[in-house]
Give the backbone structure.
Amino acid sequence: MLTQELLLETLKSVKYPGYSRDIVSFGIVKNAAASNGAASVLIELTSANPEVAAQLKQACEQALRALPEVKLVHVEVKMPAGPGATPAGQNAFANQNKVPGLARIIAVASGKGGVGKSTCSVNLACSLQHLGARVGLLDCDIYGPSIPLMMGIKQRPTLSPDQKMIPPSNHGVKLMSMGFLLDGDQPVIWRGPMITKTIQQFFHSVDWGQLDYLLVDLPPGTGDAQLSLCQTVPLDGGVIVTTPQEASLGVVRKGIAMFEKVNVPILGIIENMSYFATPTGERVEIFGHGGGRAEAERQHMTFLGEIPLFTEIRLGGDQGQPVVVTGPHTPPGQAFLRIAEALHQKMG
Ligand SMILES: Nc1ncnc2c1ncn2[C@@H]1O[C@H](COP(=O)(O)OP(=O)(O)OP(=O)(O)O)[C@@H](O)[C@H]1O
Ligand SMILES: [Mg+2]
């Protein structure tokens, strides 16, 4: 049975950041309510420290989620108004964990696998670099990190004198990947806390330098892992990749809902594998066409553009030579560059 006592008992395992005392004995847990498997907690801070608020929120959510009786968790952390307080109506998450040096962090996600998310992440990163921005890529795909191959990067990160990881780079883009931390083809069973810890390291133990954009390739799907990633990663916005057919669009809505749940603004939708252009210029709409734009309109979201099926895109990925790098003026290169421009414009 989920009771208030159980919630409070559980919250006693959460320490106030920087202190050995727990938050319950500190007296900042103002409300804890349980009903039907849902846990709702209100915490009131006495000082306006967004970083502490974010850490506490996350720690409480993690502790409560570990209870088998809990199906839904809502933790609200209130800060007093004043200097440093989050202005009303602003996404508190976006500011709380700001990583110095990283101007914008954008996640690339999809509702389902194999729609070309990683291909888009790689080519958009190289496109933004082509447009003059300083760009990094973070491959958070825990199941099958494919970005090192697509970027043609074989070397692993090195360590700086102050023990930070220096990301390897190619095509002018810095890269960190779950793949660098895994050994060979060993399957890895990731547990929630391990994922969260690794992601945190990707932000705080990596020497990214100054970047205009960090693109994050999320694993496919909209499960708990994705949600917790979105909560751990201080995102400025999300881009959703879909294929045109309705089957994929049904899951797009899940992708959108996932970002909305964690208050991450959706920057737009990309339709990948939009159509196949034959060498004679004929257009074959293998998966139908226009579903991405229609869905964007329905959801009042920006349609960022479409990427046709091109053999060069797949080859570029397999050879570690993204098509935007080898052929920025070819039709596939242009398709990615136009989307990168739209994104850049949107981010200001
Ligand atoms: N527009 C395209 N034209 C041709 N091939 C493409 C295109 N987009 C993606 N591909 C190819 O489709 C395959 C799947 O793409 P990708 O790995 O980027 O998908 P994903 O959504 O990241 O998959 P996963 O869910 O497994 O992470 C790759 O071989 C890629 O080269
Ligand atoms: Mg992928």
